[in-house]
Amino acid sequence: RHSRSKMPQYPGLDRWILLEKMGDGAFSNVYRARDSTGQLGEVAIKVVRKFEMNSNQRANILKEVQIMRNLDHPNIVKLVDFSESRQYYYIILELCPGGELFHQIVRLTYFSEDLSRHVITQVANAIEYLHETSGVVHRDIKPENLLFYPAPFVPSTHPKPKQPGDEDKEDEGDFIPGVGAGGIGTIKIADFGLSKVIWDSQTMTPCGTVGYTAPEIVKDERYSKSVDMWAMGCVLYTLLCGFPPFYDESIQVLTEKVARGQYTFLSPWWDDISKSAQDLISHLLTVDPEKRYTIKEFLAHPWIRQTNEETTAAA
Ligand code: ADP
Ligand code: MG
């Protein structure tokens, strides 16, 4: 279906056979590709147009690659290889055939509490690894940067949400294929383009000697971690109801709403969503970063600890 001849050819990328375009960004195209040597199977290749970037932007790409090199977690997209030609950087990545979580929210309208928990727990496990083990903050957590590896087919248990206008349509059945008892599969955090190292795994201190670290450095580290926690609150909110907590057509008004932490659990969409889920979100969408939940507090919250059976029983 995707003719090879339509795919662009890049110098020095002969090993890989580009199959289709999967996404793009400001300076990059992302392709699904196959290893011509047959050793590695399919990968994703982020082709970055070096020639459109200034030296600062180029340095940032190298930083992104350097950070990814040091990461190893089942819920984080793995760096397979990195190379460059005169005009391009080639970032070879573990392929996430399911694509963006964003598209699944659009497709399903919103996720059940069980499915949302299944997704956000995997994101949280990756964040815990970044914040507590690697000393990295991601700083760009959003549904477009959450990719997934689909679960092997299992009978679906996800009820199809009713859409306006469904009344006069033929009943297509109650269930959505591809989202089953096993969830949607393995979620993987991608795009470390804005990520930052807050401490070095060698010294375990933020760029200095143990015991000599100034309080503002320690606070800085805490603040930057809390950025990811806020974003997780936005993602969880969006998963559960299908729209983001903060939105306005005017960027100015939107910025003001975010600054004040002005959001609501809008009726009727939130009427049937548990108070426990709302409580967890409110601890993430807390304006004061000192009071906002850390990843440890998030993982200890009753809504996260709860099993799927308990949700069903409580409903
Ligand atoms: P940018 O910094 O331009 O946002 P990303 O790394 O987020 O670049 O990649 C852009 C898009 O390409 C993603 O949102 C996703 O749709 C797709 N993509 C990136 N990496 C992969 C991957 N490993 N597997 C599948 N799709 C990917
Ligand atoms: Mg991105």
Automatic annotation (TrEMBL):
GO molecular function list? ATP binding; protein serine/threonine kinase activity
Where along the chain is ATP bound? Answer: K46, E144, N145, D191
Identify the catalytic residues: D140
Give all residue intervals belonging to the Protein kinase domain: 16-304
Q: Which residues cross the membrane?
A: none
The source's superkingdom equals: Eukaryota
**Record-given protein name:** Serine/threonine-protein kinase srk1
Source organism per entry reads Penicillium diatomitis
Residue span relative to the full protein: 94 to 408 of 624
